[in-house]
Amino acid sequence: MRNERGMPKLTAWWRACAHPTHHPFPITLFLLFLLAGCTKEPPVYQQQSYVFGTLVDVTIAGEDEKRAQQLIGQVLQEFDRLHHALHAWKPSDLSRLNQAIARGEKYPVTPELAEMLRDAAALSAQSGGTFNPTIGGLIKLWGFQNDEFLPLRPDPAAIAALVKAAPGMSDLTVENGTVTSRNPALQLDLGGYAKGYALDRAAAYLRGQGVKGALINIGGNILAIGTRHGQAWRVGIQHPRQPAALATLELRDGEAIGTSGDYQRFFELDGQRYCHIIDPRSGYPVQGVEAVTVLIPPGRQAGTLSDVVSKPLFIAGVDGWRAAASRMGITQALLVDVQGEIHLTAALKSRLHFLAKAPLLHETP
Questions:
Q1: Taking CA atoms, which of 73, 183, 287, 364 is between 20 and 30 Å from 55?
Q2: Are the CB atoms for 8 and 2 separated by under 8 Å?
Q3: 117 vs 179: CA distance, rounded Å
């Protein structure tokens, strides 16, 4: 819903007997506003926008409309700021840093970006390098640094050259307000980090403003604050091959959930699906996995981890996802393989309610 200037309107979701809200676009997780019967309840205010190349959705309960509008406006303004600062291929602080790295030059960065790079480096090391924000060159080569993805198989020699160059976060030096790299092939793309970082920023702001109930959704990475008028926020995990939820769960205060899938950013060529999640060790998009979902407990970086952690599990695949989860300190996770079978931890299984006939489950401690 948009106003005369094309901007999203603030919507109060409070109709009695309302149906679950399904977004008509392929995001990894979607919100399910499930009302109890046909009872009338206080309004819940929601506003949507398009940032970070995806739809974002901020919902607030327990505030009047004017205050909710002000709070959501501030959150969306912050998202827009981060989007423009961290864009990997359009003019931004990050793209200018990449240009300097390619020239072998130092580049001054903000304290915020410096801290983000230090944090991303620590998470990359913890993942064994499978979470690697420095493979922007490979992402560009595969055509995923574009608004539209064309079916194009890159030159194998170009892929091999970038893999041989082996850029990694350890190639960066961040000190005295500047960043340099000893590897000119290093090109930063924070697409697997920025959405989660923005979630944490939004949550800290809303809590600081005294908000008792909110749900923040950035393209399927979702963080919950408090409750929805005393009821837990319920979210659905998107089925990777059907326009419906695979399962639902109640998201507790401070928890965050995120999914990486092969169905949102991909192209098909000669009957083969190529998704945007690239294994930095091979230089090729990951095959054999349709989706990975992680549930993160409350914490200062719950949002960031919901964005970052799913990638190492996705890249590790069916044989290695559980070990990758342990390395990242994750106990609640699931993986959907290309046969549609679900591999999941017992801790997450206990939280899920499957909506359709239960698929084949492979449970692990």
A1: 287
A2: yes
A3: 9
